[in-house]
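pipeline: protein-struct stage 2 | run 1193 | DUF1049 domain-containing protein
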Amino acid sequence: MRGVKRVALVLIVLIAALAILAFVLENQQDVALAFLGWSTPQLPVSVFVTLALIVGMLVGPFLSLLVRRKKRPNPTL
């Protein structure tokens, strides 16, 4: 059973890596983003999407911790 789980995990990781590689290779067009007077240098689209994914992965858990903390009843009241 352990071997089957390990093989399944390796296959999932391999498929994810291939999907990421295909995404990066297909999105090589250079773009520059501008927001409130601030602009970025021209970089491939995949760079901006990957950075947005990483920022979301960092901010998401932090926001969920804040929401959970606010929902807890305060035992001192």
